[in-house]
UniProtKB/TrEMBL annotation:
Chain ranges of the Protein kinase domain: 155-421
UniProt xrefs under Gene3D superfamilies: 2.60.200.20, Transferase(Phosphotransferase) domain 1
Organism: Aquatica leii
Protein name: Uncharacterized protein
Sorted UniProt keywords: ATP-binding, Nucleotide-binding
Domain FHA: 52-110
Keyword Cell membrane belongs to the record: no
Source species, domain of life: Eukaryota
GO molecular function, one term: ATP binding
Length: 460
């Protein structure tokens, strides 16, 4: 006869086995997003299965009826749109338009049977662009709790654009106008040494320059907020990325006509700065931003972290900049102080790079001092096959910008007047059209929905 304890133990074991064998074990669901409803009677949806379909058909995951949709349901298809994630990467979420009357993301039509990637905080409309139904929210995005409440109340986080030693740049959207901006956070350094990139005086200088400039070929600031720990600068967002990306993504060097149109805009921006005694000191392709990924687009000079307002004609002596683009007089102690001509040298390197996909001053070995030596002596060659299709006029302009002696080097005004640029009236007209289109878009933005920003605000 078994003991009571043994009987109880056997009974429990048998009962447990029965439960396990009689129930289907479900794999845990992976949540990759959420559709937050904008309509009062339309349910919000947690995206936890491979696809979701919205439409009038009763088999849809979200069924549109006259009870939950304020507008006529006649504009809604039986299967209107489908949301699904990449099977190999559930952080990538797509939306496909299945409808006749259209599905819109941020008021832009997707196109029937076409698919686009959904980004965090995208607005989805159905039937018409005004008929907004859902906001898409990605899961597990950083909350950026450190942002001041003044920013959280005005902007919503979309993505991280970049990180650096002094801070980071975020892509944000204005909650009122729905326009996108780049939010640059600069951490305040404790050291006031002049070589410290985020020392308070250098940050203050960058703010002063940003607030004093206004030109179509220079990135503008919309709002500046300062706390005890950091400075937050809201900048216009340049969706085309850096000039570096455009050059590197092209299988061949940029066509000379394209390089000229882009370069001319850089010259216009730099000429504006020099007329106001502002020296950039770090001109390079990664600090040249493009409005779109098209070859014919608006170009803007960015990043004034190393810039300086020259308050006298005595020159500067701080060694700063990026090695491949730095002028000889900045790194050669025998030259003493330097002037705005260092920016023109950088212009020469940029144009050389655009036309050949090569840098004029490169190390012949693993020794970085090779670059410094070539720069100090001003030695470079146009020997690759890329130069065979480049005009003599373009080569002449480069040679005049890359003069070792800054007194013999062209000024930015002489660069603008060089025949390669000044005689191409068709190119100049193209630039005018691009700039006018940009100015008109800004004007319309101000008239329709954009709140006037607070230019600078001190947060205690």
């Amino acid at each position: 006869m078994s003991s009571p304890d043994t009987d109880l133990r056997d009974t429990q074991t048998q009962h447990t086995d029965y439960i396990v064998s009689s129930q289907e074990i479900e794999e845990p669901k992976i949540v990759y997003g959420k559709l937050t409803s904008i309509k009062m009677y339309l349910p919000s949806i947690v995206l936890d299965k491979p696809e979701f379909i919205l439409g009038r058909d009763k088999g849809c995951d979200v069924v549109i009826t006259k009870n939950n949709f304020a507008r006529s349901v006649d504009v809604i298809s039986k299967n209107h749109f489908r949301i699904h994630c990449d099977p190999n990467d559930n952080t990538v979420v797509f939306i496909t338009d299945l409808s006749k009357n259209g599905t819109f993301v941020n008021s832009v039509p997707i196109g029937k049977n076409k698919t686009v990637v959904l980004k965090h905080k995208d607005l989805i409309s159905i039937g018409t662009s005004e008929s907004k139904v859902y906001v898409f929210n990605k899961i597990n995005l950083p909350e950026y709790a450190y942002l001041p409440v003044q920013l959280k109340d005005k902007y919503e986080f979309i993505d991280v654009l970049g990180n650096g030693a002094c801070g980071e740049v975020l892509l944000v959207r204005d909650l009122f106008s729905q326009e996108q901006y780049a939010l640059k956070k600069i951490n305040k350094g404790k050291s006031c040494h002049k070589d410290n990139l985020n020392n308070p005086s250098r940050i203050k200088n960058e703010i002063k320059i940003l607030e004093s400039v206004s030109h179509p070929c220079i990135v503008s600031s919309r709002e500046i907020i300062e706390t005890d720990e950091a400075v937050y600068i809201i900048l216009e967002y340049m969706a085309g990325g850096e000039l570096t990306d455009l050059v590197m993504s092209s299988p061949t060097p940029l066509p000379e006509s394209v390089a000229k149109l882009l370069f001319y805009q850089i010259v216009l921006g730099l000429r504006y700065l020099h007329l106001r005694n502002i020296i950039h000191r770090d001109l390079k392709p990664s600090n040249i931003l493009l409005q779109s990924k098209d070859l014919i687009t608006l170009v803007k000079i960015a990043d004034f972290g190393l810039s300086k307002i020259m308050e006298s004609s005595s020159g500067l002596d701080t060694c700063c900049g990026t090695p491949c683009y730095i002028a000889p007089e900045v790194i050669d102690p025998r030259c003493g102080s330097y002037t705005m001509q260092v920016d023109v040298w950088s212009l020469g390197v940029i144009l050389f790079y655009m036309l050949s996909k090569e840098l004029p001053f490169q190390a012949e070995s693993n020794n970085p001092n090779d670059i410094i030596r070539h720069i100090v002596f001003g030695t470079y060659r146009m020997s690759s096959s890329a130069w065979n299709s480049v005009s003599g006029s373009a080569k002449d302009l480069i040679s005049r910008m890359l003069k070792k002696n800054p007194e013999e080097r062209y000024s930015v005004h002489e660069v603008a007047d060089h025949p390669w640029l000044s005689r191409d009236l068709g190119m100049q007209e193209q630039v005018k059209v691009i700039v006018n289109k940009y100015n008109e878009a800004k004007k319309v933005s101000k008239e329709f929905g954009a709140q006037p920003p607070t230019k600078k605000l001190k947060v205690d």
